[in-house]
Amino acid sequence: MERPEPAEVRMSQAIQPAHANPRGELSAGQLLKWIDATACLAAEKHAGISCVTASVDDIQFEETAKVGQVITIKAKVTRAFSTSMEISIKVIVQDMLTGIEKLVSVAFSTFVAKPVGKEKIHLKPVTLLTEQDHVEHNLASERRKVRLHHEDTFKNLMKENSEFDDPICDEEEGMVSTGGTAVQSIELVLPPHANHHGNTFGGQIMAWMESLATISASRLCRAHPLLKSVDMFKFRGPSAVGDRLVFNAIVNNTFQTCVEVGVRVEAFDCQEWSKGQGRHINSAFLIYNAVNDKEEMVTFPRIKPISKDDFRRYHGAIARKRIRLGRKYVTSHKEEVPVCVQWDISNQVSLSNANVEALKNLAAKSGWEVTSAVEKIKIYTLEEHDLLSVWVEKHVERPAHLTYHLLSDFTKRPLWDPHFVSTYTVAVKSVLLPSVPPCPHYIRSEIICAGFLIRAIDSSSCTVSYFNQISASISPYFAGNLGGWSKSIEETAASCIKFIENATDGGLINTF
Known about the structure:
Elements: E1 8-14, H1 28-47, E2 51-56, E3 59-60, E4 70-80, E5 84-94, E6 101-113, H2 131-148, H3 150-161, E7 183-188, H4 202-221, E8 224-230, E9 233-234, E10 244-255, E11 258-268, H5 270-275, E12 279-291, H6 308-330, E13 341-342, H7 348-364, E14 369-374, E15 377-384, E16 387-396, H8 400-408, E17 431-432, E18 449-458, E19 461-470, H9 475-483, H10 488-502
Parallel strand pairs: 13-17
Antiparallel strand pairs: 1-4, 2-6, 2-9, 3-8, 4-5, 5-6, 7-10, 8-12, 10-11, 11-12, 14-15, 15-16, 16-19, 18-19
């Protein structure tokens, strides 16, 4: 058996029927409780004093676990700051009959050391033993920046959303109101619900939230909701034994086969309870898929916002989805799978035909969702299992055939693409060239499927659509744009429009 590292804490739990949901799978709420407890123990092992949960990053659930299997949770401090620490959490499920292990989730949480009296806290640095420790230590700083800028990023995206007409809000057959998904519940905090500090256990609050959110999601889909992810959230304040916790959940928005449910938690002591004045201690957003009795994925109905609050929650879900996409590919642990094929002159034609066909198929897929719309530029995204694709649509006041000539001439690309480096080889799909072997001075990224589609609007204007099916090696370049904390895609698209519209005909029109 593999021994844990000195700074690592492990928890192994055999999944019993009491831990399961009606489908015989491990309850997501129970798993959240175990995750929080393990992370807390890792934080206290490093700090040497009591610690409390400050925030939890996005938690993505890749696999489900069933009764009879064993869950193992590994937690360790990746980096210590002044008074806070980032904890990395890895959850693995093992089938005891086959011995096969599968990754359930990789997550990160932040814990704060509780001072004793007036003593100031200065956490010791983390001892880095392996190359992976150094990688995670550096990434922890980047993840912290994302957390610190989360609220500003969200506000900017909400402002951006209010400045364009969302076509989804138009009247459409089958749209539903979310009023029927509202659920309220109350819990009295008892000693078994408290942690070793006397406050309500953070994992318990998360479990209660998940339970209520599941009910809300099921009211919309009339199927079996499966928790896909939990959005990043902060604990706003503590609660204690004797407090009444009031939970309110409602569906905010739907996105094809997933739905976002928002949950708000307020705490009341006896006096606050009698006055009806509670403390807002937490809000979380949980994303669900759903399956029917045949284990088929359910498509959720689209939401029809009615009240001002409906619209706020509706647009908030769109902004959070965009931020979540970006953060997902910042923290992604998926390994790159080579997609290149060997190229030579004999397969040039077949490769070209296959690339064009792949691009047309990508453009024709359903499920594209708008994530940004500013002036002449719209950005759409499409999630399919582990694949993410981006579609950037631009309106150009130039004829389609002239636009095609300008964009297909890659020698002109440095004139409009500020990110283009002349030593790069640009292809619709990456190929392996024996004449250009790998070079240690450059990082090679692979393109699965990418390219432009140009459609004429009239004789003097067209739409230019750029598609990219993102591979793991290039996802970091898109993460900031998807998450809303970078505008490089919009800037490049604007530069491309300017380049095309300012180009002189130079007799090109007469050649077509």
